[in-house]
């Protein structure tokens, strides 16, 4: 009996390591509306190094789900494991540190510091992750900006002076600079034209593959699903639906 318990414990631990994301009985509601769940997910998981396209219309709870998975919001109930760590048991400060070190997030609204340059916005992410500034980091930053077609003359201008499309590409570079184990993207191509969108997707998939990242890509644009083997609808995993802002 003891051997069975030890064996089962080891198997459970191994499975947790193989899962980048695992949700069990996750519910979320805003404190002011406890009777109105936005998310109700009995179980959902994403294996390490898997790339998934998760789609759903505006208001279906996509951005809320990403906020839970990145630790920006705590769940109202349930177990939330990301990269083997129980986010539902962490404090806000612990979740912030974990996110900076292990998760890249391309926000729909960019969240850049407007008075900093693209280079400084990207390097700021490395400081949050406690990566030491170096020539290599500067070279990596410049390589990303070149790959995302940000002209050199824009690198040291305040980001508020850049176009919306340029700001979005800077936000993408910032999410990629630390080569995170888990990369999450919330409608990351919404401000890009078709040429830059396709260039971004090609670059993203190459970086993800080269660095063995897990990718959770969320969008309502089903034309992008062709880049993914694994495509799921949030409607299929969220039993309740909801009215989150996406």
Task: Report on this structure.
- The structure is a single chain.
- The protein has 246 residues and is an alpha/beta fold.
- The chain has a single domain, classed as P-loop containing nucleotide triphosphate hydrolases (Rossmann fold), CATH 3.40.50.300.
- It is built from eight helices and nine strands.
- Helix 4 (118-128) crosses helix 5 (135-147) and helix 4 runs parallel beside helix 6 (164-176).
- The model is unreliable at 12-16 and 241-246 (pLDDT under 50).
Summarize the structure.
With 246 residues, the chain is α/β, with parallel strands linked by helices. It has one domain: P-loop containing nucleotide triphosphate hydrolases (Rossmann fold, 3-Layer(aba) Sandwich), CATH 3.40.50. The strands form two sheets. The protein has a five-stranded parallel β-sheet. Strands 2-1-4-5 form a four-stranded antiparallel β-sheet.
